[in-house]
Design brief:
mainly alpha; 5 strands; single chain; disordered N terminus
C-alpha cells in the first residue's frame, strides 16, 4: 500500500483535456435565431424591390384607392369613386393601402408591406415547426420554404399570396398550439386566421384545412369529445370570419357600394363560389390554351421552375411518413408530420388537376408543405441512421431532389454550364456522408444534415438571382431563368410585349404606358369630376390612375366583361358631369373576345356623341363638351 501510494503521489499531473471548440446552435438563444431568420428573409425580399415598379397595377390601384377613401378601403374598390371592386376580397390590399396613406404613393409603399409579410411568414413557420421538432429540423424546413422561388417571387410582389401565406402560417401555428392542450383559445385563433386568409385569397387559404382538422381530431389533447367540440368551434370561427365580409357586402344596397368585380350578378358570394371557386376547377380547351392537367403538370416548364424543386423528394418523404416514419414519434410529431404530408398531397393533387385558370404562382400554396414534409422525413431518417435501409432511403430523397434540380435547370438558358456539375457534386457529397455518418459520430451526422440542406436548396436559391434581376410586373410574374421552351410563361410574356399583333394581350396583362398629355388633362379635371377618365380594361385604367393620382373608372372591371356600368348608368353619370374623359383603346375593343355588350354600347355611344380631343391609341373623348 505504501509503495502504491508513493507512486501515485509522484506521478506527473496531466494537463486537463480541453474540449474542442465548435459552434453549437443549441446555445444560441431562440430570439437570436428568430432575428437572424427574419432579417435574412427581409433583406432577400427587399433587395432591389423597386425594380418591380407597381408590381401588379390592378392591385396597386386598389391600394391607392383604399389610401384615399375608407369606403374604397373596405370594399376593395379599384377607384375611390367606387365604381367597381377588384375580383378578390380586400384584405390583401389593405397593407399597401395603409403604407400609401402613411408614406405616400410609391413602388416601395406598394410592395414593401408584402416583403415584410413574407419575412414574418418565415418566422412564424419556424416557430410552428420548432414547437415539435429540434432546432435543426425547424431551420431546415424554414430554409427550404424561404428560398423556394415562388415564395421569393411573391414576397416581392403585391398579389394576395404573401398576405394569404402569412395568415395560413399563423393558422398552422395555432393548430400546432391547439394540439398541445384542451384550451379553447388556440382553436379559435386557428379558425380566425384561416377565416382571415379567406378574406385575402378565398378558397386558396382553406386547402390545407381538412388535413389539419383531421390531424387535430386524431392526435389532439383531451378526449375525442373534447377534440370534436373544439375543432367544430374552430370551423365555426373560420366560417364566421371568412364569410363576414361577403355577408356585409351583399347586404349593402347595390347603389351604396361598388359593383363586385368578377361577378355577373353583383354578388360577393357569387364571386367566392364561382369565379374564385368552381371556375378554377373547370377544364377548358381554348384556342392557344389547351388543358394541360395531369400528374406531370407540376414538372412542366412553368410550375416546376416556381415550386417543383422539392416535389419529388417531398413525394418520397410523404410516402415514408405515412408508411413508417410516424411510428415511434410522440403525438405532436405525428400530428405535424402526417398533417403536413397530407396537406402537401392535397395541394399537389389540386394543382395537378385543376382547370385552365391556373397561374404558376398558385404553387405558392405548395411550398410550405413540400418544405416541411421533406425536412421532417429527413429528420426521422437521421434518427435511424444506424440502419442501412434508412440511410438508403435518405440517399434516395437526396437523389430525387438533385435529379429534380438538374431537370429544372435544363429548362433555363441562362444557367452557367458548370451549375449541373456543382449540384451533382453537392448531392454526391451529401449522400456519401449519410452512409458514413452513423451513431455515435455526431460531427459527421451534423455535416450530413448541413450538406443535405445545401444540396437541396442550392439550385432554387440560385434561381432567385434570375428572378431578382428582372422586372416583375403585370398579371403573371414568373420565377427563374428565361426558358428554352417557346410556350413557357416567360417566353409567352416576352412575345406579348414585342408583338404588335398581341398588343391587346399586352394591355390586358400589363396596361398601356400612360400618355403624358392625357395625364395632364386628367389632373386639371380632378377638381370638377368624380372620375377624370373612364376606360377599359382594368390594367389600362390602373396605369392612368397611378400616373395621375386621380380616380379612373374601369368599365367592365378586369377584362371589361363585367356588366358594369350599364349604358343607362353611364349616361346618367355623364349628364351630371361626374366623368371628364373617355379613352377608347381600339386594340381592346376590336378583339372579339374582349368587352361586354354594355362596354361596347358605351363606346359606341361616346363615339357618336362627343368630340375627340386626342387621336391615336387611345382615342380620347371629352364628355363635358357636347351634351348627349
Amino acid at each position: 500500500m505504501t509503495i502504491q501510494k508513493s507512486l501515485i503521489q509522484t506521478r506527473p499531473k496531466m494537463a486537463p483535456i480541453r474540449p474542442r471548440r465548435h459552434v453549437d446552435t443549441q446555445r444560441l438563444p431562440e430570439w437570436a435565431v428568430l432575428a437572424g431568420l427574419g432579417a435574412t428573409a427581409l433583406v432577400l425580399y427587399l433587395w432591389g424591390l423597386d425594380l418591380n415598379g407597381w408590381g401588379n397595377p390592378f392591385y396597386a390601384a386598389a391600394a391607392q384607392a383604399g389610401a384615399h377613401d375608407w369606403k374604397s378601403f373596405f370594399f376593395g374598390s379599384l377607384d375611390w369613386g367606387n365604381s367597381i371592386s377588384i375580383d378578390k376580397p380586400p384584405l390583401a390590399v389593405w397593407p399597401s393601402a395603409i403604407a400609401i396613406r402613411l408614406f405616400g404613393l410609391s413602388s416601395w409603399s406598394v410592395l414593401a408591406p408584402h416583403a415584410i409579410l413574407g419575412s414574418a411568414t418565415v418566422v412564424v413557420f419556424y416557430l410552428a415547426v420548432r414547437r415539435v421538432f429540434p432546432r435543426g429540423t425547424a431551420l431546415t424546413a424554414t430554409l427550404f420554404y424561404m428560398i423556394t422561388p415562388v415564395v421569393f417571387l411573391m414576397s416581392r410582389f403585391n398579389n394576395p399570396e404573401a398576405t394569404t401565406g402569412f395568415l395560413v402560417a399563423l393558422g398552422f401555428y395555432f393548430a400546432v398550439r391547439s394540439r398541445e392542450s384542451t384550451r379553447w383559445a388556440p382553436y379559435l385563433l386557428c379558425g380566425t386566421m384561416f377565416g382571415l386568409g379567406f378574406m385575402a385569397k378565398e378558397i386558396q387559404a382553406w386547402i390545407p384545412v381538412p388535413a389539419l382538422a383531421v390531424g387535430l381530431l386524431v392526435f389532439g389533447a383531451g378526449t375525442i369529445g373534447q377534440r370534436w367540440r373544439r375543432v367544430l368551434a374552430a370551423g365555426a370561427s373560420m366560417l364566421t370570419i371568412g364569410l363576414a365580409w361577403i355577408i356585409v357586402v351583399d347586404t349593402v344596397p347595390a347603389e351604396n357600394r361598388p359593383y363586385v368585380g368578377g361577378s355577373l350578378g353583383n354578388s360577393a358570394l357569387e364571386l367566392a363560389w364561382d369565379y374564385n371557386g368552381l371556375a378554377r376547377f373547370i377544364q377548358l380547351n381554348a384556342p392557344g390554351l389547351p388543358y394541360d392537367g395531369g400528374p406531370g403538370r407540376l414538372f412542366n416548364a412553368n410550375l416546376a421552375v416556381a415550386a417543383g424543386w422539392l416535389v419529388l423528394p417531398a413525394l418520397l418523404a410523404a410516402i415514408f411518413i405515412f408508411v413508417y416514419a410516424w411510428q415511434g414519434w410522440d403525438r405532436g410529431q405525428k400530428f405535424l408530420g402526417l398533417s403536413s404530408a397530407a396537406a402537401f398531397l392535397t395541394v399537389a393533387v389540386i394543382l395537378s388537376f385543376m382547370g385552365t385558370m391556373l397561374h404558376s404562382y398558385y404553387t405558392y400554396s405548395l411550398a410550405p408543405w413540400a418544405a416541411l414534409t421533406t425536412a421532417v422525413a429527413l429528420h426521422r431518417l437521421r434518427q435511424k441512421a444506424d440502419r442501412w435501409a434508412q440511410r438508403a432511403l435518405a440517399v434516395a430523397v437526396i437523389g430525387a431532389g438533385v435529379y429534380g434540380q438538374l431537370r429544372i435547370i435544363e429548362y433555363g438558358i441562362e444557367w452557367p454550364p458548370w451549375a449541373p456539375w456543382a449540384i451533382g457534386v453537392l448531392g454526391v457529397a451529401a449522400a456519401a456522408t449519410h452512409f458514413i455518418a452513423t451513431p455515435p459520430r455526431r460531427a459527421l451526422q451534423a455535416a450530413a444534415a448541413v450538406l443535405t440542406a445545401v444540396a437541396l436548396s442550392a439550385a432554387p436559391a440560385s434561381s432567385n438571382i434570375f428572378t431578382a434581376s428582372q422586372p416583375q410586373e403585370g398579371t403573371n410574374p414568373a420565377s427563374g431563368s428565361t426558358s428554352r421552351y417557346p410556350m413557357a410563361l416567360k417566353n409567352v410574356l416576352d412575345g406579348v410585349r414585342a408583338s404588335p399583333e398581341l398588343s391587346w394581350a399586352k394591355e390586358v396583362d400589363f396596361g398601356a404606358p400612360p400618355d403624358s398629355r392625357l395625364v395632364s388633362l386628367m389632373k386639371v379635371a380632378a377638381s370638377s369630376s368624380t372620375w377624370t377618365l373612364a376606360t377599359y380594361s382594368a390594367q389600362n385604367a390602373a396605369q392612368y390612375q397611378l400616373a395621375s393620382d386621380t380616380p379612373v373608372m374601369s368599365i367592365g372591371g378586369w377584362l371589361g366583361s363585367d356588366p358594369s356600368p350599364t349604358l343607362a348608368q353611364f349616361q346618367r353619370l355623364v349628364r351630371t358631369g361626374r366623368i371628364a374623359y373617355f379613352a377608347d383603346f381600339s386594340i381592346i375593343r376590336d378583339h372579339p373576345d374582349q368587352l361586354s355588350p354594355e362596354a361596347r354600347s358605351i363606346a359606341e355611344w361616346v363615339e357618336s356623341a362627343f368630340p375627340i380631343v386626342m387621336s391615336g391609341e387611345p382615342t380620347v373623348y371629352d364628355l363635358r363638351r357636347s351634351p348627349p
